[in-house]
Amino acid sequence: MSTTILVAVTDIFFYTKVRDALRPQGYTLERIRSQDEVAGKTASASPAALILNMNDLAIDAFTALETLQADPALRSLPILAFANHEETDTWRRAKELGVTKIVSRNEFSARTRELVEDIIANSGQQSPVRSAPNAEG
Questions:
Q1: In which domain of life is the source organism classified (predicted)?
Q2: Cα–Cα distance measured from residue 71 to residue 62, given in angstroms and rounded to the nearest whole number
């Protein structure tokens, strides 16, 4: 069985980092390239986690998080986000909107696979998001 990770990262440098870190480990990546794809792909892909660039130019990360929080079936999705380390307001707001873990861009680049595996393991989520019995955030 393949584990699907949604990747809401349009920056090619960071997407390549994700691809190179996760595909060799057997993960399937489903890329989100626009704001319009956030809800649909999250609901249809049964992902184990979402990776979100808080500074993405094509996807408004806060709107994406609000969309996920509005759907009880998606609230429990583990989310790994990354942002510039100086943006303390971004980090605070991301946590308020349900991000499981937020890290600096440098840490994300250096430890992508370990960070993804950590949020999946610590979420207690063994099945796809749609069948999660508990929608607590």
A1: Bacteria
A2: 15
Second CATH level (architecture) for the domain 3-126? 3-Layer(aba) Sandwich (3.40)
* Residues present in the chain in total: 137
Domain positions in the chain are 3-126
**Model pTM score:** 0.87
What is the separation of C-alpha 61 from the centre of its chain, rounded to a whole number of angstroms?
10
Helix (H, G, I), strand (E, B) or coil at 36: coil
- CA 58, CA 11: separation in Å to the nearest integer? 9
The SS3 call for residue 27 is: strand
pLDDT, tens only, 61-115: 999 999 999 988 888 999 999 999 899 999 999 999 999 999 999 999 999 999 9
φ, ψ at 4 (rounded to 5°): -95, 130
Residues 6+ apart with CB under 8 A from 19: 29
Q: Is 90 helix (H, G, I), strand (E, B) or coil?
A: helix
- Whether 132 and 68 have beta carbons less than 8 Å apart is answered as no
Q: What does the alpha-carbon distance between residue 34 and residue 1 come to, in Å, rounded to a whole number?
A: 27
